[in-house]
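Reviewer 2 asked us to include a model.

Predict the structure of this chain.
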Amino acid sequence: MTSVTISCQVNPSEDPDKVAAAIANIFPDAELETTDYGFSGTATIDRFSKLIRKQKILDATRGVMIKNRRGDKTWVNLNKQVATVGKVSFADKNPVLGAIEVCIQDDDIEGLIDTVAPVTVNGEEVRV
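Predicted model (structure tokens):
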């Protein structure tokens, strides 16, 4: 079973409603709770998976997910500002305004990565 956990800090200069809306643009089914630093919650990976296909960033997504894989988990950090317009963009390690931190856990994490961000050849998905 796949588990997606989201956390995101809200800086004093940011509007919490806009940060929550940015998260919802990528994870519309996210169940968020307010924390001392911002938001945390859970979601499914469905919309994220559709967005990376629409944006044609499967290779980049696959690379990030494989690089950040540890055991049965992988992590991606998403740019909050770009998420406000419903796009996926991977954030640097320590972005100035913070990032939407997404932890994905699955008993078969390699299989999940192959499903979410499959191998491509000439921009087309290849089922392995």
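Residues 3-117 form a domain with the 50s Ribosomal Protein L5; Chain: A, fold (CATH 3.30.1440.10). The chain has a mean pLDDT of 93. We have added this to the supplementary material.
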